[in-house]
TrEMBL record:
PANTHER family: NEUROTRANSMITTER GATED ION CHANNEL
Protein name: 5-hydroxytryptamine receptor 3A
UniProtKB keywords: Membrane, Receptor, Transmembrane, Transmembrane helix
GO molecular function, one term: transmembrane signaling receptor activity
Organism domain of life: Eukaryota
Encoding gene, per UniProt annotation: LOC109089882
Length: 160
């Protein structure tokens, strides 16, 4: 219980971290801290388990899968932050161009600045919307994966 419960709490904290505002780096640093905490528990577990075992014990599988889930969650957070930054960057470039009335390439056939600004704003909102869709979809899949994993593990640990 000294290993199983803390690792489960870290997993619950990782799920709850999806509700942290992703505009800053707090979410990513929190998830990395969780991953480091699980890795410390894995090191403690490695010291307590016998090294002559032929196959990996279930508690090792439990901790390794949760470590992997948190690692995948970190990669998803990086992707969402990248998409949100891309949307914010596009929005700031389009806002600057609309305010100054200057563009990198002057074209006689180009639409007015107001239309260009609206299109740029729509593109930046598109990246933000894609990031939000990815985040929500991953959260649902993440919770389903956790439930399936824990139910399979429960059946293996406590056969009927």
């Amino acid at each position: 219980m000294n290993i199983i419960l803390p690792v489960f709490v870290f997993l619950v904290l990782d799920v709850m971290s999806f509700f942290i505002d992703a505009s800053g780096t707090e979410k990513l640093s929190f998830k990395v801290t969780l991953l480091l905490s699980v890795s410390v528990l894995l090191l403690i577990l490695n010291d307590t388990l016998p090294s002559t075992a032929d196959k990996i014990p279930l508690i090792g599988i439990y901790c390794s899968v949760i470590f992997s889930l948190i690692g995948i969650s970190i990669l998803e957070t990086i992707l969402v932050n990248l998409l949100k930054a891309k949307g914010a960057e596009k929005r700031s470039v389009d806002t600057t161009a609309a305010i100054t009335g200057q563009n990198d390439v002057e074209d006689l056939q180009s639409p007015p600045d107001s239309i260009r600004y609206q299109n740029g704003m729509q593109r930046s909102l598109c990246w933000t919307r894609v990031a939000r869709i990815i985040d929500v979809t991953f959260l649902v899949l993440y919770i389903i994966t956790i439930i399936v994993f824990l139910s399979v593990l429960e059946r293996i640990w406590f056969p009927k």
